[in-house]
Amino acid sequence: MTVMEQRGAYRPTPPPAWQPRTDPAPLLPDVEPYRVLGTKAADRVDPGLLRTLYARLVRGRRYNAQATALTKQGRLAVYPSSTGQEACEIAAALALEERDWLFPSYRDTLAVVSRGVDPVEALTLLRGDWHTGYDPYEHRVAPLSTPLATQLPHAVGLAHAARLKGDDVVALAMVGDGGTSEGDFHEALNFAAVWRAPVVFLVQNNGFAISVPLDKQTAAPSLAHKAVGYGMPGRLVDGNDAAAVHEVLSDAVRHARAGGGPTLVEAVTYRVDAHTNADDATRYRGDAEVEAWRGHDPVALLERELTERGLLDEDGIRGAREEAEVMAADLRARMNADPELDPLELFAHVYAEPTPQLREQQAQLRAELEAEAEADSAAAPQGGHR
Ligand SMILES: Cc1ncc(C[n+]2csc(CCOP(=O)(O)OP(=O)(O)O)c2C)c(N)n1
């Protein structure tokens, strides 16, 4: 048959009917960041919850200041402060049940401590010591993740596995705005949505990925809009409004627990300090911008709500600050004590079954350490023979 004859035989028909696979309208995020403090919605928030959030925020701010001071004293190698982002950190920890799991990034020490991890143990990695420093199973907190967004697929895997096993567990994974450009972000959200895994993704949009502002990072209308492409709801919330972040995350956790699948929450906030103590933020942003955000400070916003409603007075404010000082003094004292380090720990927990090369290197290091200890004791002055 010639080509012309083939064409003649082809009878075009309309394609099978097309419909969107999911209605995108309910997945779309809020038109502007959701707020509670200073609005009517605040009246229905439990005063006890507001007070708890306040005490934790004050403590969190003090923790950030103390940890930053410890970097200057050489007690911490590096500290990525979350000053200005305390509402997201604290609300993330409080929105979870004890049986749930938190998957933090390197900036989320406050969320980790708020879950119950010892404040000193939470700093182990940043001190340049053990990679994790706390037992992840004790408080169900994964290690602070330095490689961007790698914690997200881990959270999805844990949540999906828990569901397959019939365990009632939700995973909450935290990531920065820059982390949303990573392949792991895409893979995690895609799998989570396809599997309807019980996961909540919290993006703290603090304006910058080190020196890179958000508009150089994405052309999306908002980071919350990215949810729609994966087939999950996106929520946009004021990240400095602790009551709003707590409500949105709690709703998302409930939705996930009930089998509704994942949610992507974008919390709009601001990193008031530099990226870490090793960064000079004045090289890429102006003071006016920082000052504007100080006017929308998470601690001050909550303090104002509580005092205006007669739920907090001068004594209450003083009490919260004093309690934070006690925590800071304890952190200082314990961080100033030199840790006992055993160089042979290098080889522990690398593999369940160490490789022959590692065994050989371990034996070599042990022999060197023993020889050094022997030499030291031989050189030490002997008692009574001065
Ligand atoms: C996979 C990977 N690429 C690059 C880096 C280097 N890096 C460390 S922090 C950072 C910026 C991350 O910004 P963002 O995700 O917005 O989080 P933030 O630090 O603002 O909390 C980059 C690029 C890294 N840690 N991991």
Please give the radius of gyration in angstroms. Answer: 26 Å
Q: List bound small molecules.
A: thiamine diphosphate
Measure the end-to-end span: 112 Å
Quaternary state of this entry equals: single chain
Structural class: alpha/beta
Helical residue percent?
40-55%
Summarize the structure.
The protein has 386 residues and is α/β, with parallel strands linked by helices. It is built from 13 helices and 7 strands. The protein has a 5-stranded parallel β-sheet, sandwiched between helices. Strands 4-5 form a two-stranded antiparallel ribbon.
Provide the descriptors you would attach to this structure in a database record.
5-stranded parallel β-sheet; binds thiamine diphosphate; 386 residues; 13 helices; globular; two-stranded antiparallel ribbon; alpha/beta
Structural commentary:
With 386 residues, the chain is of the alpha/beta class. 43% of the residues lie in helices and 8% in strands. The strands form 2 sheets. Strands 1-2-3-7-6 form a 5-stranded parallel sheet, sandwiched between helices. Strands 4-5 form a two-stranded antiparallel ribbon. Strand 2 (171-176), helix 7 (183-195) and strand 3 form a beta-alpha-beta unit. The longest helix is centred in the N-terminal third of the chain and has 26 residues, at 47-72. Bound molecules: thiamine diphosphate. The site of thiamine diphosphate (TPP) has 14 residues, from strand 4. Thiamine diphosphate (TPP) binds at residues 107, 146-148, 176-179, 206, 208-210, 271, 275.
